[in-house]
Protein 1
Amino acid sequence: MKIDHLILLVSSLSMLTQAADKLGFVFELVRHGARAPQKAQKDQFMVPEGMLTASGQRQRYLMGSLNKQRYIDIGLLDDTYNPAQIYIQSTNFFRTIQSSYAELIGIYPPSQKTKLNDGEKQSLKSGKGMPKLKIRNQGKTVDPGQDPMEGFQYIPVFNYQTPDESDDLMTGGCKLIDEADAYLFPRNDTYEPVADYIMPVLRKPIQVAYGLTDDQAWGLSYPQLYDYSDSQLAEDKEGIPRRYSYSAEEWFYMRNTQKWALSLTFPQEYKKIFATKIMRNPLMNMHNRMNEINDGDKTRDSLRYFIYSAHDLQIANILEWLHPVGHDFVDVTYGSSIFFELWYDTDCVNSLRDESCFKVKIIHNGMPLKLSTCLDANWYTRGSYDQICTYTDFRAHTTNFGYSGMPLHEKCAETFTPPSME
Ligand SMILES: *[C@@H]1O[C@H](CO)[C@@H](O)[C@H](O)[C@H]1NC(C)=O
């Protein structure tokens, strides 16, 4: 409750200071909602392993409702679905695709307007309005009056079904980092920097919670611990009573185990490549939108809301790669999000028509992120305490931290060499 109030307060304060500004473009990177565990015990779930649960679906639906208020009700997007304005790409998993649809139902809720009228229903029933297909038991199968999707807006969610180098969301779109991840993820030594302090805290609780023998408990590896913590967190989200009465410290590390399993598997250079690839299309579209606004913003039919529906993996690595000032995270919870919002001053655009009129606000789970490049430039060159990035500084930051070697498709085509064999 307290947290809700705080978020409301913070967002209404920022609305006040942004009153003269207008929102031009949004990039949303978001994790799927709550799901069943990937491995370990899953007997308590009504969906198969790794699948989105009903509460997970609800999480993203509610997020969509909030995004409708934030982005449609203020006029960034049209009230009714305009396919030119929104692009949503998901990874090729049922939980991320279903999450995308759930969020879209929140953004464009079912309406009376799109319901079929009686004449249209009759035309479908009689077969006249149907595509030229043979349908068995047509009278029974086709009953437009009973369509549970009636009133819903159909919106495509794009995803690559097989690994493809233009798929920037999945590691499979970059052979080099995919191989590095496959090699590093299952290895004990990948987690050496944290296993020494996390394992001793969690070994006993996990043993009791999951009924492990002493041998199993002593033989527990970090990748196994991660599986148990994944299962325990999934159960917790569904309101299933905890298997053990964890202390605050134990629960902290139960959550924190995830962060290292996601980020230590992408050492410095690989994180750069992965993050640069994830960000390139959204950033290019943000830039195009800025040019379009400076050019007089002549059409409503252009892309202004770009959504990547992904996993904890992408969020954790983008967060670490951004190096936000004074901002840490314990884990990447279900439905976690990072928003990159492009704002502009309309008076400035009308007179100057250039990049200096634009700012970028970055928000992680409702918390504003600060970037060193922006803070430094605001203070040292403009004498301002402003914590929001100018568009130019934001670009400088992502370029400085980004991968800048050979073209990405060439880099990604390289073969991974394990460190010990170099
Ligand atoms: C990983 O660590 C566990 C527990 O210490 C051990 O049993 C296992 O053999 C290790 N695996 C490798 C490949 O070293």
Protein 2
Amino acid sequence: MANLNIKVTKINESKLSGLDWNNLPFGKNFSDHMFVADYINGEWTNLQIIPYQNISISPANAALHYGQSIFEGVKAYRLANGDAAIFRLEDNFKRFNRSAERLMMPKIPAEVFVEGTKQLVALDQDWIPNKENHSLYIRPFMFALDEVIGVKPSDSYKFMVLLSPTGPYYPKPMRIYVEEQYVRAVPGGVGYTKVAGNYASSLYAAKVAKDKGFDQVLWMDAIEHKYVQEMGTMNAFFIIGNKAITPGLEDGTILEGVTRNSVIQILKEMGLTVEERNLSIDEILEAYKSGELKEAFGTGTAATISRIQELVYEDFSMTFDCDKWEVSPEVTKRIDDIRYGRVDDRYNWLVTV
Ligand SMILES: *Cc1c(COP(=O)(O)O)cnc(C)c1O
């Protein structure tokens, strides 16, 4: 077993006083410390918390050339009682290992991923904003460390955790373009993993859509270009009549969002029927035209719930009056009440540090 003592080296002077709490764009500011661990000779070793700093790697680093690189996104919140808590960390840990397995990377023990993250958040907990819709974004990631140019699984890896205080991600409702030409994931591929390359390959379609005035694309299945999948880093939900429908996970093309799972549980608690299944764009269009399509939104750790104000498929535009919606604001409220510790944590979602 690895040596799990975490060696802590603290920063001389905190950077906290230089932080502008009123302007916290996503992913731009990093806390004082970071967690680092190495996988060498089949063991996790060198577990450390050190000041946030640049790292040095070989130009022949295998991850740079062939992309063995995975990540997670988690958040910590300041609770009403003053405690600091991480939301559903265990679920992100499990998903991280599913990504690792698919990319021929070593699984990481809970003692490294969970304990390392908790200790880091505990040390830098003054970086958790004490403000509605704000949080401390946690970015665990792992990449190949071998110094070799050749397509094969690396023998050595580096695991790290960064912390970034963050404000609201998508403050405004989104305009979404239903993507017919480019695809994100295919059955048998890596769509269900948080592998870095998935995001690189999504940039082009996003740019084309942005040039037309959209915020994101809604991906469709790669085979028939008929069933909707997800958006950017968000799972998709449609409220049709008194049902909530979200694409199913069976064919491995969709990321199994932790927020998606939280939202499903809350929707059921609110009395809605939740269906996880194939949902065609034609069914969405029909529901819109008959007035049954009430709400459409994305879910993800970064933004929690992002409402869709316009959904465009070919030449047809579906527009929504988001201010009149009832379901998604209630879901947001119920999840936020748990996350900020204003109600009982009835699903055991919080891990206090
Ligand atoms: C991270 C991500 C999501 C959302 O997952 P959460 O666990 O809810 O943050 C959805 N889709 C993709 C492609 C993602 O990368």
